[in-house]
Amino acid sequence: MKQTRVVEFGTGMFVLxxxxxxxxxILKTTDVQSDLRGETxxxxxxxxxxxxxxxxxxxxxxxxxxxxxxxxxxxxxxxDAQVTMRISANFDRIPDDTDASxxxxxxxxxxxxxxxxxxxxxxxxxxxxxxxxxxxxVLENLIGKFLVKLGGE
Length: 153
Fold this sequence. Notes:
Elements: H1 2-30, E1 40-47, E2 58-61, E3 64-75, E4 80-88, E5 99-104, E6 111-116, E7 128-130, E8 132-134, H2 139-152
Parallel strand pairs: 1-7, 2-6, 5-8
Antiparallel strand pairs: 1-4, 2-3, 3-4, 5-6
């Protein structure tokens, strides 16, 4: 009887630690603590293909998260994707000729927007549009092009 209680207690502790580990993993992967606080401004960018970009994806510059993706819509007139980003007002000196690229974090990581600054003397402001963009690399398209080239030889 006493040994049964020890086994039940050990099993309960194991399950409790499993749930605590799962909760910790969820908090780390969703990156809840890095929400934008304070003043922000909105910036738009248009891409031919957004790949697997998701809402709340990071917007980075030099590897530092400076904002988040807040909207992804399809423009039926221009036939492209419009991405809306919120950038912290702390980063208000981003040149307006900045380049926006959709990048992938690691081999199987999520996608995010990386900004590469330009050299303009004027800066992005609320509701500015980034003109220079580079769409996401879609692995299936690259493989298809490689196979077509390989078949042609």
